[in-house]
Input
Amino acid sequence: MRPLAGRLIHRARGEASAEFLLMRGANVLFSTRMGNGSWVDGTGRHVLLLASLLAMGCAATPGAPEEGEAFGFLPSGTAIWAGGPWPAIQPSEDVDAVIDQLCPQIMKLPRATLQDYGQEYCGALYTVGDGRYYASHPSPLGSREPLGPQRRKACYPPRTVRDARGRATLIADFHSHPWAPSSMSPRDREARNQLWLIRIQFDTRCTIQKLVPHLDEDRPGELFVREGSRWRRIGLILQDDKASGRVTALSDE
Ligand SMILES: [Zn+2]
Output
């Protein structure tokens, strides 16, 4: 067994984290993430291997966002923050101009297109009071799941954005799916998982969906797909379906 792909990150304050993929041939055997120095997943053999990788001082993947600078866990340990702005994305007064830049940049990140063995990335769109919209760094942090068919690594949408220029007001989260075609999942649409006014999701073909949940309003949630420079509304989430996120499809509008 040998690691074919991996990423190890060292940070100050005694924190270390690692994210890596173990492969034999085309089979992914194991994937984990370690935080706060504790090895949560994996067998002793994996831990030994990781320890030896750490001792060898493996460098982070060039160009990959790094925990501790671009994103990290909040003290609760189950929610994350993201830094911003992400320099790969040009800010704009037109939020759609920002949204349209996201997918091509995200798909350059490690494992972003690895389908069943892929990695989701989550970020946020926000303002700092200057009339423009910004994108946060994307984060791969999320639930620790062994990888395998249909077990892609999900990411947590940021609860807050840290921007040195001032207080960030979040208006949307965005996330990728590492295959295509892939639209918003039922979990993506459930009311309890909505954080902001808008949710953006895209797949490896850069088909973009927008969910406007209208959670606290007496009107249906709306699901759109990006077509060129317009949003086409493709479904409604009726009042009684908001909890489950069930979509009632619309014929062409
Ligand atoms: Zn999703």
The chain is about 10% helix and 30% strand.
